[in-house]
Write a structure and sequence with these properties.
The protein is of the alpha+beta class and 181 residues long. The chain contains 2 helices and 8 strands; from the N terminus they run αββββββββα.
Protein backbone atom coordinates (compact mmCIF):
# COMPACT_ATOMS: atom_id res chain seq x y z
CA UNK A 1 0.00 0.00 0.00
CA UNK A 2 1.33 3.41 -1.00
CA UNK A 3 1.46 6.30 1.47
CA UNK A 4 -1.06 9.06 0.78
CA UNK A 5 0.15 11.69 -1.65
CA UNK A 6 0.32 15.36 -0.84
CA UNK A 7 -2.65 16.01 -3.10
CA UNK A 8 -4.95 13.53 -1.28
CA UNK A 9 -3.79 14.81 2.13
CA UNK A 10 -4.54 18.38 1.05
CA UNK A 11 -7.98 17.31 -0.26
CA UNK A 12 -8.73 15.56 3.05
CA UNK A 13 -7.96 18.78 4.95
CA UNK A 14 -9.64 21.24 2.59
CA UNK A 15 -12.87 19.31 1.85
CA UNK A 16 -14.42 19.75 5.34
CA UNK A 17 -13.36 23.40 5.43
CA UNK A 18 -14.88 24.03 2.01
CA UNK A 19 -18.14 22.30 2.99
CA UNK A 20 -18.35 24.38 6.18
CA UNK A 21 -17.77 27.61 4.24
CA UNK A 22 -20.50 26.73 1.72
CA UNK A 23 -22.94 25.86 4.52
CA UNK A 24 -22.30 29.16 6.33
CA UNK A 25 -22.63 31.14 3.10
CA UNK A 26 -25.87 29.34 2.22
CA UNK A 27 -27.33 30.10 5.64
CA UNK A 28 -26.40 33.76 5.35
CA UNK A 29 -27.91 33.99 1.86
CA UNK A 30 -31.16 32.33 3.00
CA UNK A 31 -31.71 34.81 5.83
CA UNK A 32 -34.59 37.16 5.11
CA UNK A 33 -33.80 40.88 5.06
CA UNK A 34 -36.94 41.73 7.03
CA UNK A 35 -37.93 43.05 10.41
CA UNK A 36 -36.38 40.86 13.11
CA UNK A 37 -38.82 39.20 15.46
CA UNK A 38 -41.94 39.90 13.42
CA UNK A 39 -44.90 37.83 14.62
CA UNK A 40 -48.44 37.30 13.40
CA UNK A 41 -51.14 36.29 15.90
CA UNK A 42 -54.71 35.36 15.01
CA UNK A 43 -57.55 35.30 17.54
CA UNK A 44 -58.88 31.96 16.24
CA UNK A 45 -56.69 29.34 14.50
CA UNK A 46 -59.81 27.87 12.87
CA UNK A 47 -61.91 30.88 11.81
CA UNK A 48 -65.32 30.58 10.15
CA UNK A 49 -65.88 31.58 6.53
CA UNK A 50 -67.43 35.06 6.28
CA UNK A 51 -66.98 35.91 9.97
CA UNK A 52 -64.43 38.59 10.96
CA UNK A 53 -61.38 37.50 12.95
CA UNK A 54 -58.77 39.73 14.60
CA UNK A 55 -55.15 39.55 13.44
CA UNK A 56 -52.34 41.23 15.38
CA UNK A 57 -48.90 41.88 13.89
CA UNK A 58 -45.92 42.76 16.09
CA UNK A 59 -42.27 43.43 15.33
CA UNK A 60 -39.80 43.01 18.15
CA UNK A 61 -42.68 42.88 20.65
CA UNK A 62 -44.07 46.28 19.56
CA UNK A 63 -47.17 46.75 17.37
CA UNK A 64 -46.29 46.79 13.66
CA UNK A 65 -48.35 49.76 12.48
CA UNK A 66 -49.05 49.66 8.74
CA UNK A 67 -47.86 46.07 8.33
CA UNK A 68 -48.98 44.52 5.06
CA UNK A 69 -50.84 41.20 5.41
CA UNK A 70 -51.88 38.92 2.57
CA UNK A 71 -54.17 35.86 2.64
CA UNK A 72 -53.21 33.02 0.28
CA UNK A 73 -56.13 30.62 -0.20
CA UNK A 74 -55.28 26.94 -0.88
CA UNK A 75 -51.49 27.46 -0.86
CA UNK A 76 -49.30 25.17 -3.00
CA UNK A 77 -52.19 24.11 -5.25
CA UNK A 78 -53.20 24.91 -8.82
CA UNK A 79 -56.18 26.93 -7.55
CA UNK A 80 -54.24 29.31 -5.29
CA UNK A 81 -55.41 32.89 -5.14
CA UNK A 82 -54.30 35.84 -3.04
CA UNK A 83 -56.19 38.53 -1.16
CA UNK A 84 -54.52 41.72 0.08
CA UNK A 85 -55.86 42.69 3.50
CA UNK A 86 -56.07 46.27 4.77
CA UNK A 87 -52.89 47.48 6.52
CA UNK A 88 -52.61 47.10 10.29
CA UNK A 89 -53.66 50.09 12.39
CA UNK A 90 -51.44 51.86 14.94
CA UNK A 91 -51.92 48.98 17.41
CA UNK A 92 -50.83 46.42 14.78
CA UNK A 93 -54.38 45.05 14.53
CA UNK A 94 -56.58 44.34 11.52
CA UNK A 95 -59.74 42.37 10.90
CA UNK A 96 -60.18 39.75 8.19
CA UNK A 97 -63.30 37.95 6.99
CA UNK A 98 -62.24 34.77 5.14
CA UNK A 99 -63.93 34.50 1.74
CA UNK A 100 -63.52 30.75 1.31
CA UNK A 101 -63.15 27.64 3.49
CA UNK A 102 -59.98 25.54 3.41
CA UNK A 103 -56.30 26.09 4.22
CA UNK A 104 -55.17 29.72 4.13
CA UNK A 105 -51.66 31.06 4.68
CA UNK A 106 -51.42 34.55 6.15
CA UNK A 107 -48.18 36.37 5.26
CA UNK A 108 -47.09 39.61 6.92
CA UNK A 109 -44.44 42.11 5.82
CA UNK A 110 -43.28 45.33 7.47
CA UNK A 111 -44.90 48.57 6.36
CA UNK A 112 -43.46 49.80 3.09
CA UNK A 113 -41.48 46.59 2.46
CA UNK A 114 -42.80 45.73 -0.99
CA UNK A 115 -46.11 46.04 -2.77
CA UNK A 116 -47.84 42.68 -2.94
CA UNK A 117 -47.90 41.10 -6.39
CA UNK A 118 -51.35 40.05 -7.69
CA UNK A 119 -50.12 36.57 -8.59
CA UNK A 120 -47.33 34.33 -7.31
CA UNK A 121 -44.46 34.68 -6.79
CA UNK A 122 -44.53 37.65 -4.42
CA UNK A 123 -41.82 40.26 -4.86
CA UNK A 124 -40.11 39.66 -1.52
CA UNK A 125 -40.22 36.87 1.06
CA UNK A 126 -42.63 37.38 3.95
CA UNK A 127 -41.28 38.42 7.32
CA UNK A 128 -43.60 35.90 8.92
CA UNK A 129 -46.41 33.58 7.90
CA UNK A 130 -49.01 31.36 9.50
CA UNK A 131 -51.38 28.77 8.03
CA UNK A 132 -54.92 28.46 9.38
CA UNK A 133 -57.86 26.19 8.55
CA UNK A 134 -60.96 28.19 7.63
CA UNK A 135 -64.16 26.25 8.40
CA UNK A 136 -67.66 26.39 6.98
CA UNK A 137 -70.07 28.14 9.37
CA UNK A 138 -72.59 25.25 9.16
CA UNK A 139 -72.55 21.61 8.21
CA UNK A 140 -72.99 21.34 4.42
CA UNK A 141 -76.14 19.25 3.86
CA UNK A 142 -75.26 18.60 0.21
CA UNK A 143 -72.07 16.82 1.31
CA UNK A 144 -74.07 14.47 3.53
CA UNK A 145 -76.58 13.74 0.76
CA UNK A 146 -73.80 12.92 -1.73
CA UNK A 147 -72.05 10.67 0.80
CA UNK A 148 -75.28 8.75 1.59
CA UNK A 149 -76.10 8.30 -2.12
CA UNK A 150 -72.58 7.03 -2.89
CA UNK A 151 -72.72 4.65 0.09
CA UNK A 152 -76.12 3.29 -0.97
CA UNK A 153 -74.91 2.67 -4.52
CA UNK A 154 -71.71 0.97 -3.40
CA UNK A 155 -73.26 -1.06 -0.61
CA UNK A 156 -76.33 -1.90 -2.70
CA UNK A 157 -74.16 -3.23 -5.51
CA UNK A 158 -72.12 -5.33 -3.10
CA UNK A 159 -75.27 -6.77 -1.44
CA UNK A 160 -76.82 -7.58 -4.82
CA UNK A 161 -73.62 -9.32 -5.91
CA UNK A 162 -73.50 -11.47 -2.75
CA UNK A 163 -77.20 -12.38 -3.02
CA UNK A 164 -76.70 -13.49 -6.60
CA UNK A 165 -73.55 -15.41 -5.70
CA UNK A 166 -75.11 -17.23 -2.75
CA UNK A 167 -78.42 -17.99 -4.47
CA UNK A 168 -76.69 -19.72 -7.35
CA UNK A 169 -78.59 -17.82 -10.04
CA UNK A 170 -76.95 -17.38 -13.40
CA UNK A 171 -77.55 -13.72 -14.15
CA UNK A 172 -74.60 -13.58 -16.54
CA UNK A 173 -75.77 -13.27 -20.12
CA UNK A 174 -73.30 -14.19 -22.86
CA UNK A 175 -72.44 -11.37 -25.22
CA UNK A 176 -72.55 -13.56 -28.34
CA UNK A 177 -74.50 -16.59 -29.24
CA UNK A 178 -72.33 -19.67 -29.65
CA UNK A 179 -72.03 -20.74 -33.28
CA UNK A 180 -74.35 -23.52 -34.22
CA UNK A 181 -72.79 -26.59 -35.75
Amino acid sequence: MRPPSRRSALAAVLAPALLAAVAVAGTAAAAEPSAPGMELAIADDRPLRGQPVRITVTAGGAPAAGAVVEAIYRPNSSTTYREALPPADSSGTLFWSPRDAGPVTLEARPAGAVEIAPSPPAASPPATSRTVAVRYPAFPASGLAIMLLAGALLLGGAVLGFVMLLSGSRAVVPLEEPPST
